[in-house]
Every structure is written in structure tokens, then in C-alpha cells.
Amino acid sequence: MFAFQLIQAINDESENFDELEIYWVIPIMMIIVPIVYFIRIKLFDKYVYNIDLEKIDAELAEYERKEQEMLEENK
């Protein structure tokens, strides 16, 4: 948003300040905000809560393997 305002301030020919920039900023922000939020969640979980998703996936795979072994033994 700041970039759009800076360009409008430099451009002397423009008569409409801050009227049309919102139509450019909204689609751009609809792409950028979810990406930044996803990165934030990944970093926050890893470094603040010390949650390692790879370890959780490995543990779930081990449980599934054990469950399959138990089912095969019971047959």
C-alpha cells in the first residue's frame, strides 16, 4: 500500500489520490497474507511450541504399522 501511495505522491499528473489503489492492493494482499500466515504458523509451531511435524508423522506411521501387525496376528 505504501508503494502505491508513494507512486501517487511522486506522480504530479494524478488528481485522484488513494481512490483506485485499493483495487490493486486487495488482490495482491489476498495472495500475500495467506502465504505469510502459513509461514508464520510453521515457524511458530516449530520454534515456540517445539512441535516437529516430521516426528509426529513418524510416530503416526509407527502406530499404523503396529496396528497392521496386530490385525495380521489376529487373523
Give the SSE map.
Layout: H1 2-10, H2 21-47, H3 53-74
3D structure, described in words:
- With 75 residues, the chain is mostly helical.
- 77% of the residues lie in helices and 0% in strands.
- The protein has 3 helices and no strands.
- The radius of gyration is 25 Å and the shape is rod-shaped.
- The model has no long low-confidence stretch (mean pLDDT 82).
Number of strands: 0
Portion in strands: under 5%
Computed over alpha carbons, the radius of gyration is 25 Å
Shape estimate: rod-shaped
Main sheet: strands, sense, barrel: none
Weakly predicted, low-confidence segments: none
Number of domains: 1
Average pLDDT score? 82
How far is the N terminus from the C terminus? 65 Å
Fraction of residues in helix:
over 70%
- Category by helix and strand content: mainly alpha
Count of helical regions: 3
H/E series: HHH
Offer a few descriptive terms.
75 residues, mainly alpha
Give me a quick take on this structure.
With 75 residues, the protein is mostly helical.
